[in-house]
Amino acid sequence: MNVDYENENHLFDMLRNRSAFLVCIGSGVMCMEWKNIMSQSAHGTALRMEWTPQGQPSRTTLRALLGITKNTECQPKHSGMQGQLQKATDVIFLQNYSSMVPVALLVEHLSSVSFRRAWTHNGDAARGTSAPCCTVLDACAAPGGKTSLLLSLLQERAEEERTAKAEAISSLSSITEPFRVVCCERSRPRLEQLVNLIHHHFATEPALPSASPSWSADSADNVPFVTRVVEFHCVDTNKFLKRKLTDVAGSCGGSVASHTESFDAVLLDPPCTGMGLRPKLMPHMHSIASIQESSDYQRKLFDSCLHHIRGSPKVPGVLVYSTCTTTLEENEANVLHFLRTYPSLLLARATTPTQRALCNLSVVRRYGSQKETDGGQSSSSPCSFLLQKEITEVQVAKERAAASEGLSSTDPLLLLRFMPRPPDAYDDTSEDSVGFFVAVFLWRGYTGA
Hints:
alpha/beta; eight-stranded mixed beta sheet; 10 strands; about 35% helix
């Protein structure tokens, strides 16, 4: 969309009724330490802006339009905006790049079938059963940054699917959102932080009747957006999912079930050692035993989640595994374990230019100062991740077994390791990042493994 940001009258008229904005602010230099900024009690200049992308609104326009600061010297020229600005918050929510990547990849890999199922099965609601909406589990949801972005991207994706299916679903408009997000967090204070953040971010979304039969005719009117589409549970994810297995077995009158098909996708950002976060790079207090303990817990979470994903060879379920650590045990070693343990599990491959660009940024380099163990010349050849040979062998064997033509794809695997590097080791300084890890898995259905 081409916008003339110099024409403020046109800009206000176009955007005054919008409730949500995605804005690229630019880049700058930190003028405070992170601990002072995050304390929320510091005063003064935290960030000095040095660059704003061409075509983006100026800071003056942003302040006037969005109410980013209170009592700013730039007052809106449109009196109709004054009331809205008085209600506006003075907080900017900064989303980490390490949070954006796994969420975006999850939504991209969701099948269209998952969204359209709610529209094509709308008769279920009339019979008193819930429509099979696209359901996503955010397994370790707090503090809420990923959850907030997930909801925004699901909204956007649902609208795209609705537009593409407009003629077929024109009579099914009573279903407002074809998705639902289930959030688990075992810490009560962190859950409260999550709930407050999500309600704050989506406070301006319209309240509408709910498509869920659990709402009575009276209470279904004007249900807030977050209430319609999000479930919050203060519980350990393992316990929550084990309870679901017991409930399924109870409804069937049998023993404890081995699996359910509760979710189309799972976002698993488990507790980790956090060694990719720069304040923790040195010094850190993690022993080998603590790293292994963290890895073991991550494997238990992964196993629990996998037994609740809806998937088939034609419409696979999605599980995105991400950490903010750099250890082999919590990242690639876990991936190799998952692939070897579950026959129906595959890594997704990068199929779009954007995904391939991410793979190109995800590089583990051998810097020139590091010599080969045999005393030979140093190598600067990059690889995308650790244990690349072992992981690729397992993946290719599975793909060849599953493909009728006996061939596997040559697209790169969506296994992304981002590592902090020395400043002179970047091809482009814009690649600078905290350390984090993302793996996108496709689940083709439960086979008893």
